[in-house]
Amino acid sequence: MLAGDGHDNKAYELAGENLTLQQFVDAVNEVTGKEIPLLTVDSEAHAKMLKEAGAPEEFVSMLVMIQNGIREGGLEAPHSDLEMLLGRKPTTVKEALQILLK
Q: Which pTM does this prediction carry?
């Protein structure tokens, strides 16, 4: 909830950079100086990996469905109110990784 006048009954899109998984991995590699490959798996292999990692059975199908939605662009946003609300440009993924992975 935002404090101050003018925000009643308003919805804001708080999206960041629209990155592909490969672009994200490239940013991680650049910041860490490592070469971490992107492992692309289908839904069946993803479910198997989750089960083998100990994810509760009742969550596996939900997690696979969420990942499918992400893969299909479900989190991409053409517009964001974040810069307007922050009063500055948002921190980039690369900048955030540099802070988080110090």
A: 0.74
Residue 73, C-beta contacts closer than 8 angstroms, at least 6 positions apart: none
Model pLDDT for residues 33-51, shown as the tens digit of each residue: 999 999 999 999 999 999 9
Q: What is the DSSP letter of 38?
A: P
Read off the amino acid at residue 12: Y
d(CA 46, CA 64): 7
What are all long-range contacts of 84-89, with beta carbons under 8 Å and residues at least 24 apart? Answer: 85/2, 85/12, 85/14
Amino acid at 29: N
Angle at 70 between CA 7 and CA 101, to 5 degrees: 80
Report helix, strand and coil shares of the chain as percent, to nearest 5: 50, 0, 50
- Amino acid at residue number 68: N
- Strand residue runs (E) in the chain: none
- For residues 93 and 24, what is the distance between their CA atoms, to the nearest angstrom? 8
